[in-house]
Design goal:
The complex is a heterotrimer of chains A (501), B (656) and C (109). Chain A is mainly α and 501 residues long. Chain A has helices at 10-16, 18-33, 41-61, 82-104, 111-133, 137-155, 162-193, 198-204, 211-232, 240-247, 250-279, 281-290, 293-312, 318-338, 342-373, 384-387, 389-403, 409-423, 427-453, 466-484, 487-496, and strands spanning 6-7, 71-73, 78-80. Chain A has a domain at 294-501. Chain A is globular, with a radius of gyration of 22 Å. Chain C has helices at 7-27, 31-55, 66-96. The longest helix of chain C is centred in the C-terminal third of the chain and has 31 residues, at 66-96. The chains are: A mainly alpha (501), B mainly alpha (656), C mainly alpha (109). Chains in contact: A-B, A-C, B-C. At the A-C interface, helix 6, helix 7 and helix 10 of A face helix 1, helix 2 and helix 3 of C.
Amino acid sequence: MILNIWQSSNLESLWYILPELLLLGGAFGFLTMSLFTPHNRRNILAWAILILLTSLFMAMSGVGTSAEGRVGLFSGLLVVDAFSMYAKVFFILSSMIASFFFYQSKTFGSTKKLLETLAFLMVLTVGLCWMAMSVDLLMTFISLEMVSILSYLLVASKPKDAFSSEAGLKYILFGAVASGIMLFGLSFLFGMVGASDYAAIARHLQGDLHTTEILVLFFSFICILVGFGFKMTIFPTQMWVPDVYQGAPTSVTAFLSVSSKAGGFLIFMRLLIELKVHLGSGAFESLIAQIKMHEILVFFGVMSMIIGNVSALKQKNLKRLMAYSSIAHAGFILLGLSCLGQDGFFAVLFYLFVYMLMNFGAFYIIHLRVIDTGNDHIDSFRGYGNQNIWMSVSMTIFLLSMIGLPPFSGFIAKFYVFKSLLSQKYYMTALLGGINTAIAVYYYMKIIKWMFLKDGNDPEIPRYGKLARVYVILLLVPVISLGIYWKPLIDWVEASLSFVF
Amino acid sequence: MYLFYIIILPLITAVLLRWHVFDNKKSAGVIACCSVLGSFVVVLLHTRYLFMAGDSGAMYFEKLWEWKILPDVTMPFGLRLDAISYVMCLLVTFVGFLIHVYSLGYMKLKEYSRYFSYLNLFVAMMLLLVLSDQLLFMFIGWEGVGLSSFLLIGFYHQSHKNMNAAKKAFIVNRIGDLGLLLAMILLLAIYFLESGQFSLSVLTLETKASLLQAPGIGDFTLIGIVGVLLFFGVCGKSAQMPLYMWLPDAMAGPTPVSALMHAASMVTAGIYLMSRMHFIFDGSVFVSHLVMWVGVITALFGSTVAIFQRDIKKILAFSTISQLGYMTLACGIGAYGVALFHVLTHGVFKALLFLSAGDVIKACKGNQDIYLMGNLRHKLPRTHVMFWMGALSLVGIFPLAGYFSKDLILFHLFTNHFGVYLLALLGVFFTSCYIFRLLYLVFYGNRQADTNQEYRTPITMLFPMVILSILLLMLGWLWVPSFLHLPEVLPEFFATVLPVELGHHLVFKELIVGLISTVFAATGFFLARKFFLYGPKADFWIAKRYPRFYRLLSHQYYLDELYYKAFVFENHDDRDPNEDNAFTNSVLHVVAVFKGLIDRYFIDGLVHWFAWIPMFLGSVYAKIQNGQIQSYLRWITMGSLISLLYWFLWISKAGQ
Amino acid sequence: MPALFSLQSYLLLSAMLFVIGLIIVLTKNNAIQIIMGIELIFNAAAINFVAFSCFRPHLLDTLQMSGQVIAIFVIVVAAADACAALAIILSLFRVFKTTRIQNINRLKG
């Protein structure tokens, strides 16, 4: 465990956030470009990918890391370590996937719209990376809001569409209230501790705590959980998910369901990691036991799974179905997190990565289908098996991976979560997880049934461009191969958390 | 030494023969005979172990392996050679060997390996049944002999009738096995209730006095239920009253098979089981009385029905049923040693009778109807003599083996249950009637049977019969009445394992009982001689004079029709109730209907119920998600306030 | 320095503002009023920050006014939030021609 964080001066800190600065610069460049003559959409996409790729390389090559292990930036607001590198890689990757998705989407058909959206995307990426890097209450709040506000705007970005506007309204109202409550809780935590960075919080919580302090801690913990949980789409704050996911443009939904969710998990994990690193294992365990974090997280996780799976059974709208399924997945990930141990954290990071791949794949094919048939009802998949065998097989693989069937990577991810649950001896919870997985089979199989067992009434065979097919293959290959040989991924995940355990 | 070889030798031979490793008649048959002989030799070689045990009571136990089912539940599988299993092993292997030799001469097949393989399989399974010391593994042998009997009865599988008979045998056996399985499960449950832990050691075949303290209401104890269930299993295997109907039909198989299985070995497995589990039957008066009455009724039933049958083998089959009734009767009154002794003697003389019948059938070119036979004593003189010996032993005439065993049964009845004694005596009378009717109709009379002129009994058939008849003369002396002051070999031997009364029988009573039974047997003999010496005319005379009585008996008291009416639901065509597969079909029908109900309502119902719950919850939740953002926020606020309050209290309580 | 109002009174004030804001959000029908309520919630938290920073100084807090800095940031973010919210309400108005949100529930189930 590397306790000491080398605090860099402000100027040096700029060096460490060069990838993010590049992204911000790219965002501003795009916004500026949008004022001028229209450009070729393809070029725009190419530029976006290029910028993202560059920043990814910068992040991975060590611009954002240092040989000293952990570096604190801007006098303790952000920290750069292996975990933040995981976050950077994750979010930049997902933004690259999403940018192509945005390019394909009809909502962002005009170049102006595309430029704006890609700018938003880049700033979102920056915000998400910072969410995982923030070690101060203030930075937590700022990065969270950065991501949230931009997400609200993205959701409502379909012009003159009732669903999109309604979804945006619901998103912002819900999100703002959740952020407000979180802020309120943060203020009490600040008040109890006196300083706003996590290290100070940890130090304050080291000794024996008075009952009042525990109550205050607990209250702020719940409020923080409301705020983080809003982004994680878990139990108390999951009610916005179906409406927003249904109303938003499909590309935005896909991006939100992956990145925003991952951001929520990573910011929560960052809090826990910092507490654990500064408190040491023993004090951390006792703190958790005092505020009953295990039980609450398990309760929230189980409820999210149940609500997600049970409500998805009767859904007729594809995007709503996927929304409920994402609630269920989030609940499952939270169960892995609730173990608050080595197994649990590894399981969460593994699951998030795999989830990104299969979720984007599923949503992309849904998006293609929605364009073909014009509606997002579940029977728009009708007879897809006859029309386009490759796409329907890919969709089947994505869905089977989401169910968690071997030999796909979804199975391995679920396996890691179960492993962490069983190592903590949460047998009942593991049983519930299993039952929920079984319930989930139904609605995923429903889609597969519509694809293969029903005849389509659309005689026209849809044709997709080469880019679309390559995209699907690029997502499909890791889903399958990680299910067979997942060692690289788990090694990387373990390396990014090595400083914690 | 290794008891294990006793079983494995015929088993391996069975497998090899089934895979046609030895296909030639000679080699297949010889190898099969040798393997059974080998088993017999191995049993003999273990004899010394039995008599050097001293205090532990003449037992030799060999543990083969320990089966670890769960970390703390193990089951040792071992073979036990003690007095009972020793005697049974000797009977099975020796008589089995003789019958193998007989088959070499009797069977005329295209390929012999299948036949001998099944025969060896049967011997192996029977030995497993007899030697294992755990109910579970005995059950394997139990099922194995059922399987072998199915394979062998249906050996001539081209004929529907044979296959129906085989199916019937197997299914009726299975119905009995249900009782046995339930008894085993109940034993486990009783042990669990008593001791609080789950262990399979309760299934070992030794006396457990502790089990007799099992709970119950008065005389109606749990052990009593176990006893009834066990007895149900025994009825299935040993063809006692409700489950007897497979035995007459089983005569569709080759004659040596009938001799081995349905005379000497398989049907006696039930008696063996009852002797092993005697403490259960001793513990409950109700059960032992039940056993006794079922035995007596079966004995009477078998003997009366046999009087008017036409088929040689069917007569002998009913005779077996009746004698098994006697053995059951003996078990019912607590004289297990006597029952086993009767098993021994019955095995020998019934096998002899069947083998002689086989010879007769071969001589008459495959005809089994005794109305078409007659005056065979000149044609088959030696068989004639041996049939006489078997018949006399069956009715119990001194000094043949059957006298001693039957006399012991009657004596025990005489002293304890006089009413049943009278019924048993009546059975002796009927026994003598049917066997001598058979004898006279087949071997006497002046009608000449249609025989194969050049037929000579081959030596391979003659040799076993001679050995058996010699045995008959010698076997009886193993258990002589005590007043003769001769060594009582068998009862002392059995006393090491069973509660056997030794010695002190009153001279006077013994002589009286022996005399009375001889008188009854002689009455039957003279009656039969009078009526049937000159052919079956007497049958027709009785049929005319007492038609209803004749029909009642010859249709086996219409029991087949009763079963048909009770169990068969549809009658698409004019089925003849004596049609062989009616019963089988009806049983299968009942089972199918029952299973269908369970499947449709219980299992499917369970699945639908499980599926309904998530759907229902989903529709409930869908009402909450009503699209109003403010209602969402209200839910959250309310929910978090309540849980905050609850958790506050929880935490502050924990903090104190 | 002894102040007329102690920490508790500021906390009480912020709590009241928080609850008032929450009630407005939960019960008002007009979207713009709801945004006002959200602003109240944010500002309640900001008051909390400032109050704590004044009344509970911390040894390690180099600035001795972290809370006030945070409060400024909160105000900025709340403004940005309100901005975005108004933009969305505008687009909503273009479609539904009303700001009454009670009947805007096409997405449900």
